[in-house]
Write a structure and sequence with these properties.
The protein folds into two domains: about 140 residues, Leucine Aminopeptidase, subunit E, domain 1; about 325 residues, Zn peptidases (Aminopeptidase, 3-Layer(aba) Sandwich), CATH 3.40.630. Helix content is about 30%, strand content about 25%. It is built from twelve helices and 22 strands. Strands 9, 10, 11, 12, 13, 16, 17, 18 and 20 form a nine-stranded mixed beta sheet that branches. It is elongated. It starts with a strand and ends with a helix. Bound molecules: ligand BES and zinc ion (ZN) (2 copies). Ligand BES binds next to helix 9.
Length: about 475
């Protein structure tokens, strides 16, 4: 999307978006803009309402913001307007930013408009959204200098759209190779290094735990390493994203919810989106990210419950349940990252457990860390943009859940309680006592229902959160 500031609407013909703060249902002063008068009887700026007026060859869309509004709500309101009023938009659209809008509010509005172009019907013969045309130019009226905020909003949304695509496209398209190719291309476009280990190289260096999970699949596992190294980087952050491109459960085959398991690479997609965004914004931080990508499938070569496998860290693992596969690929990602790159802070994102959904539902991700400063910084970044986190315990009292008699650890407690915590304890075992590590269990927030589609779909949770966290360091 291109944008252009205009001074007046004289001679403008097209659609005009006019966000309005709430006045009063009984206000005798009508809302007025561009010669259009709207009585409070039909519209007074109440949040989540809008009002259309066709006058002077222009379609005016008055958009209610309420009395005060948060970042996430602005984004959703503008996404709603772009997506649900698609028919009223031609090639000429003007947005009138309220004088009160701060930079992050401008950013949220622009991001929302762009996200509104997203259509889940990837394989349908749908007409593209007018805003999605690369020559589309959004005109805007604003008091101050807001170009920087606008450009940032565009970059955030573009990264989130990439993550939407990666998660929502089907698993016969988005396989491990697809993720590796995506990373390679993004690396070239945005300026970060990408190295990919296939099965042979992964075997040679000992990524045994990672490789066990992909054994039953016809698609070769890909261990993807990305490194964004700006000059004079202030700090070094490490990321790991769970990249299970489909989770059948393996031999412990899923009896419920399998159809949604293309979302099991949403942690990977968030990390990939964050790499695009961090490098697109040229943030002055080094970011090294690892995406272990494979498919958890069933065939004669599949790993089995009761198998004992090895890991990159040298710890042996007893397999209790092949459906607890995410932690197996993550631990090799974490160990490899920590051993070879020593980042100052390490964050992993994973659709790891159904248990976290049972605990926290769809409102926030589960956060696990022993570093309270890191916890606070992550929560603050999330709260600012509506990608919330809630901390759960990592007490050693839960450590016995992963004690194995035959191996160093087992991959599942076998108990129907505290599943998200014992999964986090398993990951912790492989973090070599790293002093600044956080695990985000995003199973409840990465893929869900919303007003924007009839079936569950990607949310891009984590892309902006991680970027904002890095920005705020
Ligand atoms: N991919 C699932 C977790 C999941 C659940 C993701 C719901 C998205 C939505 C994970 O690999 C899994 O199967 N977890 C099991 C672990 C159990 C077998 C120990 C679970 O949580 O039920
Ligand atoms: Zn699973
Ligand atoms: Zn899984």
């Amino acid at each position: 999307m291109k944008t252009k500031q205009i001074k007046t609407l004289d001679a403008f013909i097209g659609t005009i978006l006019i966000p309005v703060y709430e006045t009063n249902a009984k206000s005798i002063v009508p809302i007025e803009y561009h010669g259009v008068t709207v009585s409070s009887k039909v519209f007074y700026g109440k949040k989540d309402t809008h009002y259309l007026v066709d006058k002077y060859d222009c379609t005016h869309i008055f958009i209610g913001l309420g009395k005060e509004i948060d970042y996430k709500s602005i984004k959703t309101i503008f996404r709603r307007i772009a997506s649900k009023q698609k028919e009223v938009f031609g090639q000429t659209v003007a947005l009138v930013f309220p004088d009160q809008f701060k930079a992050d509010e401008v950013e949220a509005a622009v991001s929302g408009l762009i996200l509104g172009t997203y259509d889940l019907g990837h394989y349908k013969k749908n007409e593209a959204h007018p805003f999605a045309n690369e020559n589309f130019e959004l005109k805007y009226i604003a008091k101050g200098e807001i170009e920087e905020a606008i450009n940032k909003g565009i970059k955030i949304a573009n990264a989130q759209l990439e993550t939407f695509n990666l998660v929502d496209l089907p698993p016969n398209k988005v396989n491990p190779k697809y993720l590796a190719d995506w990373a390679t291309q993004a690396g070239k476009k945005y300026g970060f290094d990408v190295t990919v280990f296939g099965k042979e190289k992964s075997t040679e260096i000992g990524l045994h735990s990672f490789l066990s999970v992909g054994k039953g699949s016809a698609n070769e596992p890909q261990f993807i390493i990305m490194d964004y190294k700006p000059e004079k980087a202030k700090k070094h952050i490490g990321l790991v994203g769970k990249g299970i491109t489909f989770d059948t459960g393996g031999l412990n085959i899923k009896t419920a919810g399998m159809v949604q398991m293309k979302c099991d690479m949403a942690g990977a997609a968030a990390v990939l989106g964050a790499m695009q965004l961090v490098s697109d914004l040229q943030l002055p931080y080094r970011v090294t990210a690892i995406v272990p990508a494979c498919e958890n499938s069933v065939d004669a070569h599949s790993f089995m419950p009761s198998d004992v496998i090895q890991s990159y860290a040298g710890h042996s693992i007893e397999i209790i349940d092949t459906d607890a596969e995410g932690r197996l690929i993550l631990v090799d990602g974490l160990s490899y990252l920590i051993k070879n790159y020593q980042p100052e802070t390490v964050i992993d994102l994973a659709t790891l457990t159904g248990s976290v959904v049972g605990t926290l539902g769809y409102e926030c991700a589960g956060l696990f860390t022993n570093n309270q400063e890191l916890s606070q910084k992550l929560q603050q970044s999330g709260d600012a943009i509506g990608e919330r986190l809630w901390q759960l315990p990592l007490w050693d009292a839960y450590k016995s859940d992963i004690d194995s008699e035959i191996a160093d650890v087992k991959n599942y407690s076998g108990k129907p309680v505290a599943g998200a915590i014992s999964a986090a304890k398993f990951l912790e075992y492989f973090t070599e006592d790293h002093k600044s590590w956080a695990h985000l269990d995003i199973a409840g927030v990465a893929f869900g229902d919303s007003e924007f589609a009839k079936t569950k779909h990607a949310t891009a949770y984590g892309v902006h959160l991680i970027t904002k966290f890095i920005e705020n360091l």
